[in-house]
C-alpha cells in the first residue's frame, strides 16, 4: 500500500496524464504500486491496475494480468470468487484448508488433502468495454473489441468484436460484420496515439479503415512502455 502526496498526484497527471476517478480521498492508501501500466490512463481510487494507454477503469479488479489500450471499464466490475470442490462430499474449506480446520475444529493434525482454488489471472485486450457490475471468472481472456453487458457473469473467453451479456454470459451478436472486425483487428489501430486518429471517421468503421490505411504509412506507433508507480515518481520533486 502506498500513500501519495498532493505533489506526487500532480506530477503523475501533469507529466504522464495518469489520474484517478473517483478522486482519491486524503490519506487514502493505494494498492498495486508494483503493477506496471502505461501513461495516459485512469485508475480507480483504490489503486493501480495494469492499464494500457487511453484506458480507464472505475473498478479495482483483483487478478488482472493485462489490460490493453482504449479500454472502458465501468463501476462494480469484479472477479468471481474462488472455486469449491463441487464433486467432493462437502464443498466446505473445512476439509481442504488447514487454517480453517485448525481454527474451528481446534485440531492441529495435518490436513490429509488439498484443493487448489487459486484464481487464474484475467487478460483483457484492446478496445474492450465492460459495463457496470459485470463479474469475470479467473483465467478468462476478453479479446480485442469485445463488449460485456451490464451485470454479465463471464465464465468463458470472449471472442474479438463480440457482444455478450446475461448470467452466464452468452453471445448476443457480433459487433460488426466479419470483414470489418477482421480488418480492424489486422489494422492494430490501438498501437497509435489518439491524436493521430481523432479526425478519422470513428463513427463509420468502413470509412475509418480506408482513411487509416492511407494515413498509416506516415504514422509512428506509440511505443508501449509499462512501468510500476516508482518509475513515474522518480523525477517528482
Automatic annotation (TrEMBL):
**Keyword annotations:** Transferase
Known CDD domains for this protein?
A: LbH_XAT
Q: Which InterPro entries does the entry link to? A: Hexapep, Trans_hexapeptide_repeat, Trimer_LpxA-like_sf
Under Pfam families, the record lists: Hexapep
- SUPFAM superfamilies reported for this sequence: Trimeric LpxA-like enzymes
Extract the GO molecular function terms from the UniProt entry.
transferase activity
* Taxonomic superkingdom: Bacteria
Q: Does the keyword section mention Transferase?
A: yes
Q: Answer yes or no on keyword Repressor.
A: no
The similarity comment for this entry is: Belongs to the transferase hexapeptide repeat family.
- What's the protein called, per UniProt? Transferase hexapeptide (Six repeat-containing protein)
Q: What organism is this sequence from?
A: Celeribacter neptunius
Amino acid at each position: 500500500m502506498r500513500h501519495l502526496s498532493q505533489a506526487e498526484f500532480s506530477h503523475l497527471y501533469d507529466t504522464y496524464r495518469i489520474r484517478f476517478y473517483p478522486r482519491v480521498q486524503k490519506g487514502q492508501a493505494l494498492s498495486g504500486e508494483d503493477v506496471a501500466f502505461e501513461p495516459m490512463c485512469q485508475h480507480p481510487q483504490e489503486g493501480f491496475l495494469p492499464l494500457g494507454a487511453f484506458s480507464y477503469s472505475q473498478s479495482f479488479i483483483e487478478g488482472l494480468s493485462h489490460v490493453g489500450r482504449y479500454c472502458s471499464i465501468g463501476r462494480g466490475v469484479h472477479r468471481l470468487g474462488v472455486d469449491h470442490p463441487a464433486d467432493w462430499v462437502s464443498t466446505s474449506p473445512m476439509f481442504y484448508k488447514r487454517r480453517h480446520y485448525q481454527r474451528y475444529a481446534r485440531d492441529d493434525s495435518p490436513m490429509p488433502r488439498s484443493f487448489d482454488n487459486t484464481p487464474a489471472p484475467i487478460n483483457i485486450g484492446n478496445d474492450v468495454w465492460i459495463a457496470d457490475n459485470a463479474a469475470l471468472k479467473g483465467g478468462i481472456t476478453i479479446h480485442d473489441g469485445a463488449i460485456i453487458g451490464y451485470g454479465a457473469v463471464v465464465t468463458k473467453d470472449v471472442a474479438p468484436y463480440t457482444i455478450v451479456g446475461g448470467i452466464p454470459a452468452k453471445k448476443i451478436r457480433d459487433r460488426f460484420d466479419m470483414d470489418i472486425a477482421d480488418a480492424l483487428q489486422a489494422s492494430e489501430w490501438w498501437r497509435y496515439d489518439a491524436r493521430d486518429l481523432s479526425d478519422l471517421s470513428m463513427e463509420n468503421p468502413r470509412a475509418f479503415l480506408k482513411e487509416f490505411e492511407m494515413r498509416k504509412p506516415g504514422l509512428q506507433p506509440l511505443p508501449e512502455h509499462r512501468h510500476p508507480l516508482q518509475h513515474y515518481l522518480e523525477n517528482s520533486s
